[in-house]
# Entry
Amino acid sequence: MRKILAVIVYMSFALAASAQALPSLLIGADPEAAATGGSSIARAADAYAVDNNSAAMALSDKEFSVAASYGMWAPNTADNMLAGLGFFYRLNDRMAVGFTGRMLRDKPYDITSVTGQVSGSFTPSDLLAGVGFSYAISDGLSLGVSGRFTSSSIAEGMKGSAIGADITALYSRDSFSAAAGLCNLGTPVSYGAGTYAQPMLVKAGAAYSASGLTASAEVDYLFSGALMAGLGVEYCIADIASLRAGYHYGDPAKALASYASLGLGLEFSGFSLDLAFLTASETLGNSLLFGIGYSF
# Structure
């Protein structure tokens, strides 16, 4: 009885978050990416580059970047807590390495016996840790690969894990960049009551910057048959403040739901503060993500 109830609860959690097993693989913890409609694959590397595009690390103007984030994800429906950590370091002019960590935690639910008695509570969660490597094969072209371990727990005695990988590429010249990636390749996850594939997808995107304004676009196709797309803009004022906005299109039955996004970034002496807010979405509306970071 408990396992049946746990599966029902987890599937409701997955539908609210991403409609698949391991929803954390589709939900990034980068406030800048969230604020620009999720259009992150072709943008310049930040601390969350292993999530967005590992290939971008080797072409970054920065040598080192680290950041942490925390926020509420889908507070009107799933009421999840989302936390993230990331960093990258350029080893030399050609190579860079990075790390990512993320936790997506659902609200707790009561464990009820067949007689209706509450014997405790359980909090479903996904935990993720990964590393990435990037190599610039020329001045404007780089390749990236990342590997991750994801642990997913949906009930007492119902815990699964999976190993996954991303393969990405980035071309950047002057003010234009283009990128593509094959993501979430890896082993399925099993909770003891069925096996679920990772949400594998193909990503492609482009970005253009001029006069403090950066426009970015991305299209993602999931092997499950769903399509997602994002558009974002960012305007930087005096290299101190950044205003961001975007729109994400998605399929709520198989991927992230559609939403509009707004964001703000502040940077001074290498330190940064970032805020993202999602709106215009019945599923993801009022999601809020806050981050702090440092880079040089």
Notes: Helices lie at 2-17, 31-35, 49-52. Residues 277 and 288 are 5 Å apart (CA to CA).
